[in-house]
Amino acid sequence: MTDINKEGDSATLWDFAVEIYGRQGVADACLDLQDRCGLDVDLLLFAVWSAVAGPGQLDVGAFRECIELTDAWREQLVKPLRALRRRSGGGFDRIPAATTKAIGEQLQAAELAAERAELELLENWAAAREPSGPGSEPAAAAASNLVAYLAAADVDTSAAAVAMRPLLAAAFPEPSGA
Fold first, then answer.
1. Using CA atoms, how far apart are residues 89 and 96, in angstroms rounded to an integer?
2. Is 146 within a domain?
3. Is the Cβ–Cβ distance between 47 and 149 less than 8 Å?
4. How many independent structural domains does the chain possess?
5. Is residue 132 within 8 Å of 58, Cβ to Cβ?
6. Which of 95, 121, 126, 155 has the lowest tally of Cβ within 10 angstroms?
7. Is the distance from CB of 94 to CB of 131 less than 8 angstroms?
8. Nearest CA to 36 among 163, 173, 170, 178?
9. Residue 177 domain-assigned?
10. Residue span of the structural domain in which 127 resides
């Protein structure tokens, strides 16, 4: 497992997102926040990456910019692809299951490509921003970024707090023997 807390980590946002998303409990937590609270998984992962390898701690205004930057792409491409992929898993009496499975896999690949493009857009936005400078430790900055994203998305922090814990725990695991 890569140490994402290492200073100077140059992992791209995509690489970071794939690694963190693959850690235990993160996918379920992110999908819960997406489905229950309407949050964007890419922006959740971006909030943590920003604290580790990006511009640092961001405020509500910065997350509003990010939401505005990605909203049309997410609404017009990512969400429809996701909906099609999810529907492709259902039974279609006259279409062989192998065919619907293959189409579902193609839709998933397209959805991932669209999400990668969104992450690249966010990474480019972050690269054009001044770093926040010395301040919070990365774990504290990540937690602050997640709260700022929730506020920008008009989501009650208490409704999402429990689901955010696995994401933070995966990004900032307790040292062995602690």
1. 12
2. yes
3. yes
4. 1
5. yes
6. 95
7. no
8. 163
9. no
10. 13-171
DSSP string over the chain:
---TTSTT----HHHHHHHHHTSTTHHHHHHHHHHHH---HHHHHHHHHHHHTSS----HHHHHHHHHHHHHHIIIIIHHHHHHHHHHTS--TTS-HHHHHHHHHHHHHHHHHHHHHHHHHHHHHHHTSPP--S-S-HHHHHHHHHHHHHHHTT--HHHHHHHHHHHHHHHSPPPTT-
123 falls within a domain: yes
**For 130-159, how does the pLDDT look when each residue is reduced to its tens digit (9 = 90+)?**
776 656 799 999 999 999 999 999 998 887
- Residue in this structure with the two tokens 């966010």, named with its chain if needed: 122
Cβ contact 123:12 at 8 Å:
yes
Average pLDDT of span 55-64? 95
Q: Is the pLDDT higher at 8 or at 148?
A: 148
Task: Please check whether residue 53 lies inside any domain of the structure.
Answer: yes
Distances (CA, A) of 59 to 40, 44, 95, 119: 17, 14, 49, 19
pTM above 0.85, yes or no: yes
